Amino acid sequence: CERQDGRPFRQRLLVVANRLPVSAVRRGEDSWSLEISAGGLVTALLGVKEFEARWIGWAGVNVPDEIGQKALTKALAEKRCIPVFLDEEIVHQYYNGYCNNILWPLFHYLGLPQEDRLATTRSFQSQFAAYKKANQMFADVVNMHYEEGDVVWCHDYHLMYLPECLKKHNTNMKVGWFLHTPFPSSEIHRTLPSRSELLRSVLAADLVGFHTYDYARHFVSACTRILGFEGTPEGVEDQGRLTRVAAFPIGIDSERFIRALELPQVKEHIKDLKERFSGRKVMLGVDRLDMIKGIPQKILAFEKFLEENPYWRDKVVLLQIAVPTRTDVPEYQKLTSQVHEIVGRINGRFGSLTAVPIHHLDRSLDFHALCALYAVTDVALVTSLRDGMNLVSYEFVACQDAKKGVLILSEFAGAAQSLGAGAILVNPWNITEVAASISQALNMSAEEREKRHQHNFHHVTSHTAQEWAETFVSELNDTVVEAKLRTSK
Ligand code: ADQ
């Protein structure tokens, strides 16, 4: 395909997500320094060669003045990023409020916050109003930059109102929406006061994607039960208008991890870690410090394991790396103190003057340190209470081709559907079962570890992030754009 000017034609992909993949730090009135954060989505889209991706999103900073906004817009343009400027009040109501206080816990089966249970409470209403306003602000920026033939890919629970805003402006726009979290059972979704508005808006998209078939099924059930639309094998249909709904399980850039293990600095790091923990089996947890990740449950299970297996007490160490997130939210502060308290108690109980059973770090690790840790681990513990997919489990497997360690994986993580045959699956709420799985993992024969690892390694290296993005975008391209706006019945 060629343009009139002879240059090869690459379709433009407008990726719209709450956060841009950059951290912006203001250096002066009109100067900014930017750092690209190499998340899964960025790497996935960098690999998609047939599209020219542009990012639209919030830069994560409040920029109230015009000079600052202009300068940041210019700096971001060099990284193919386009900012949406949100003021502090909107961020508070839309992002901290409706997204993180209402949708995030609800979609992970933690229910709605008590004081927001009634649709009539002012806080719920004002947060939902801010959510819609913020989504409209994202839509305005998309509309400003959209050119005919572009494909628009909206991401995650922050932007459920976006497909409708976009289609209202231009019914011909090709719009996809992908959810990175679970979509809960329709019985959970129906407790949400704004349940119908959000479903209708998402259905305005041409293609709606989830990590697993179960989440897609829950979404279709919610549309049939709450909106009275028809669920078909293809998706959701209403008066002859079809919205395609399907599962697109995400992957990682496995080659990036495998290549990193060959770097001298990573090898050096691996050597240090091996020396530091010699004579002990290494167990690892890597999570954002979030209630959905089941960190207290994991640590309590480890305590039970130590209690019941005195033999292992000085022969195993649990490294729990937890990046603090949403630190201004009281529930997250409470979780941090709870985790610290449990870790302190267990270390006091089972530690000695020279060694403790749990090393808990409240911080992020750089990519190379993370790869080295994955590589020296004997048993990884992923005990999410719910998790859309969980990429940590994939990253661990990618770094284990030499060691062939064991993955203990929550059956409530999306990854359980892809790595279930190689992992030991557990119910993270059942502390006794998780403790028993630790024992099973530490005592597993080399043959069984090899067999389980091969299964997972094959999956992780053959279902990559790039393939995920390509599949979604090519299916989106194949959908027929229809006028799908559904007005309230
Ligand atoms: P997250 O909830 O952030 O993502 P996950 O999929 O595990 O969860 O991804 C976390 C990423 O952050 C991984 O790449 C991991 O390496 C990194 N990370 C975590 N802790 C770290 C630490 N201490 N130091 C350095 N890096 C750390 C959401 C959903 C998931 C879904 C993804 C992608 O909640 O279910 O899998 O999006 O769709």
UniProtKB/TrEMBL annotation:
Keywords: Glycosyltransferase, Transferase. Coiled coil: none annotated. GO terms for biological process: trehalose biosynthetic process. GO terms for molecular function: alpha,alpha-trehalose-phosphate synthase (UDP-forming) activity; trehalose-phosphatase activity. GO terms for cellular component: cytosol. It is an enzyme of class 2 (transferase). Its EC number is 2.4.1.15. In the C-terminal section; belongs to the trehalose phosphatase family. This is alpha,alpha-trehalose-phosphate synthase (UDP-forming). It comes from Hibiscus trionum (Flower of an hour). The lineage of its organism: Eukaryota, Viridiplantae, Streptophyta, Embryophyta, Tracheophyta. The chain holds residues 84 to 572 of 933 of the full protein.
